[in-house]
Amino acid sequence: MAKITAAEVGKLRNTTGAGMMDCKKALVEADGDFDKAIDILRKKGQKVAAKRADRDSSEGVVVAKINDENTRGILLSLNCETDFVAKNDTYVELANKVADVAFTCNTIEEVLEADLDGMTVGEKLIEQTGVIGEKLEIGGFEVFEAPFVGGYVHGGKIGALTGLTTESDNKEEVAKSVSMQVASMGATTLSYKDFSPEFVKSETEARIAVIEKDNIERGRLGKPLKNIPLFISRSQVTDAALATAKADYEAELKAEGKPEAIWDKIIPGKLERFISDNVSLDKELALLDQDFIMDDKKTVAQYVESKGADVVGFKRVSIA
Question: Does the global pTM surpass 0.85?
Answer without folding.
Answer: no
